[in-house]
Amino acid sequence: MERRKFIRIGTLGALGGTLMNASTANAVPMKEGTVQEEARNIPIADRYDVVVSGAGPAGWSAAIEAGRNGAKTLLLEVNGQLGGVWTSGLLSWILDQANKPGLMRELISRLDQLDARCPIDTGNSLAFDVEKMKLLLETMCLEANVDVLLHSRVVAAIKDKSKRLTHVVTESKSGRQAWQGKIFIDTTGDGDLAALSGCGYDFGNPDDGGSHQPMSLLAVVSGIQFEEIEKFVRRADDKGSISKKYLLEEIVKSGVLPSYLKPGLYPIDKDLYMLMANQEYEFSGFSVKDVTKATLHARRELHEIINGLKSLQGPWSNIRIVQTADQIGVREARRIHGLYTVTQDDLVNGARHKDAVCRVTFGVDVHSVKEVKDPNASYNHGIRSKPYDIPLRALIAKDVGGLLMAGRCISGDFIAHSSYRVTGNAAAMGEAAGRVAAIAALKNKLPQEVSI
Predict the structure, then answer these.
(1) I need a labelling partner for 148 at 20 to 30 A (CA). Which of 82, 386, 434, 449 fits?
(2) pTM, rounded to two decimals
(3) What is the extent of the structural domain holding 138?
(4) What is the pLDDT of residues 366-408, one digit of tens each?
(5) Same domain, 423 and 299
(6) Counting beta carbons within 10 angstroms of the beta carbon of residue 3, is it exposed (0 to 12), middle (13 to 18) or buried (19 or more)?
């Protein structure tokens, strides 16, 4: 069955490429620094009940849940593997997962079967092997009869006269292809599909001129042993995150001042670690120039940090970078306008909703919007949160019909977003969005018409 599925998707790609190459358009220079592309017909490669854009933690869970509920489902991903920030971004720690039922518990059970979890006690945070996670996510999608299309970026959205989304257009090695759907889910993280569809959105902190949280590029490092560097490692008994203070002192001792003053070594295995030691300030997650500049600077800094630690000798003598992430971690981009907006008040009051799809237990986590020199500084505005609910309404687009969101691009304010954005919540939101999308598609309803 799996082989047939890969063959079917491959055939669709080849067909689209043939049609595209036969109708390649010419571009004509126009005034004011623009070009006008010749009009052309884009082939509809296939038709689906549910189309999911972005295969990160939210998109993967949305696609599986839609597929398991009987919907013909397409999962589109720009990278060469599923998992988004978990895999392409090397974020091998899952936060706020302990209270999440359903797919999250199944995922953890299957990671255990693959011996893919960290042998070091990491408390309520789940640490995993990235390569085994890639394979598991693919396996679970195929088992759910989800059609997966990698290396495909959504570049346009088509609506009908009632402002209901009907098609998305992708760009890939097969050229431009259109995909028809009944219900669509934006799990791009940055809200790309919703923005292309014409949805309104917010970005940054409106009380501070739209300033926004920094990006971070992660790395996997090896050549160090847990028994020798235990005091520098994030783990269950790391009281007050004191390991970050010790690690900063070591990096500074080597002659390097990192851009992030709370660096962390997160164990994947006893000789393998995720390093977070970099922050890129005042770059926009939906500007390709900004993302490129941030990535280039961050990768250079990570190598400087590792070279510095290596120069200290001792337990650091053989430390090396195994891999830097293909995808820089973007904490904050578009927050799409939904039927409900999750707010700071929801966090403070521990809001409960009848249409709750996820209970968030992670606190306010605002990373400094500008570079700072004080490692003890706090940027959480003194706000203490209680566990609170994310309602389904916050996952339903306000301005476009037939569109759901899941993950960090849902409808919320600046403070709320800093709490619900972590991936344990993204996966739970995706699972709910996938189930609602399947029901809506199979019953020819809009998501807001589905009975809770």
Answers:
(1) 449
(2) 0.92
(3) 2-7+41-202+390-449
(4) 888 887 766 666 666 788 999 999 999 999 999 999 999 999 9
(5) no
(6) exposed
